Amino acid sequence: MRIVTATAVALALAGQAAPAATAHQPTTDGIWRMDGYGTVLSIRNGTLQEYQTTAVSCVEGDSARRTGPGTYTMPDGTVLTVRTQGGGDRGSMRADGSVGDRNLHRIPELPDACTRPGVKGPLAAFDVFWQSFEENYPFFSAKGVDWHALRDQYRPQVHAKTTRDELYAVFSEMVKPLRDAHVAVQDGDRVFAKVRPGTVLPTEKLDTKVKKFIVARDLDDARNLQDFANGRITYADLPGGQGYVRISGFGGYAGDGAPYAAQLAELDRALDTVLSRERTRRLKGLIIDLRINGGGSDALGIHIAERLTDTPYLAYSKRARNDPADPTRHTRPQPAYVTPSQGPRYTGPVAVLTGGSTVSAGETFTQALMGRPGKTVRIGQPTQGVFSDVMRRKLPNGMAAWLPNEEFLTRAGSTFDGTGIPPHYTVPVFTKEEFDKKRDSAFDRARNVLRNHGRTTS
Fold first, then answer.
1. Using one digit for the tens of pLDDT, what is the confidence trace for 249-280?
2. Between the chain's N and C termini, which has fewer beta carbons within 10 Å?
3. Which of 92-101, 351-360, 434-443 is predicted least confidently?
4. Residues 6+ apart with CB under 8 A from 137
5. Other beta carbons within 10 Å of 254
6. Stated pTM of the model
7. 413 and 78 Cβ atoms separated by less than 8 Å
8. Helix/strand/coil for 226
9. What CA–CA distances, in Å, run from 340 to 264, 303, 445?
């Protein structure tokens, strides 16, 4: 059930709480199969238990305790809301910070594989690993990877005496060709993952280096320089009436482990200051810097976008692969809309800075701004190209696999998975040469574009 951001082993199920079940609705107790996601839920005696299923396995997953009518809280504080629909044989589940529901339908009992001890050993782990990707990963064709050929190549290398280190190496070699930052192999504290060639993940070390560079180089003559949201958001007023906001992630605003409601409240406190009524009236342009952004909650990104429009519009639609035998079959797309905030809003020109270290929710936020009414221009390099929530699948030997199974669709039905969202203006982003020569081409281009826009509309 959990969602994994692309930057590391931070595991969280993102979502925005749906309305709680009311007293007259049918009970949510029972066995439910999720549409897509390879998941069965058992809800009994105040406990929600997840089972991760494939054609060859059933592995017990996460659990949550009932904390209110139709609500269940996981050990990490994530709140799940389950509600029934129609006559009670259909339902939905949503988690704090999510932009969509996961549809459920009742089944009479747990699958047989969930009621008997699972097979152990290296071969069993290999089969569950391979099958989890085979039934859920949507992008083999787009990546040019023959997953069946990889099974034929590597399965003969696995046997009863294969060591844990050897199996970890096999799994790592199998997923390496995908170059997908939302794909990983985990064994305890070690994680193997690969990003799109020519890009790097937005680590804390890189973020610290870049922030120091920007403050010294780009914001040396700025006013009102201030950090918000546990340092994840930085704002400054630039000369000439422009504003600059840097967002390094869509989470951690109220500290690690804080519930979604606390994250949202902290974000609102930041936005109330950054986009105050007085500032939104006088701003002549706004730079939003996402070049080092490790992702997080898609819903927090939507919440920011709601401060940047007076007109409702479609951000994107989200669908998941839901046929284990057919990678072209998906759930019905769920639209996510940007609706104007009740508070002060800035509707003028925006320049969005992106790069290969713009990852996951940083990309869904970028996509949410593509349909924004008014002038919105992207500057820099393509984003990383990973949008989906991440499934964390437990393996029988205690390892885990991370993989995406969703697509975020544009209004035209296309996606930017793999390639990333391209900029309107392509310029270098934090290359060695840029650092050595103390240049920030994307920032400078953004300032010029916003100035020119002001001249053409004045």
1. 999 999 888 899 999 999 999 999 999 999 99
2. C
3. 92-101
4. 147, 183, 321, 327, 403, 404, 405
5. 19
6. 0.92
7. no
8. strand
9. 16, 9, 29
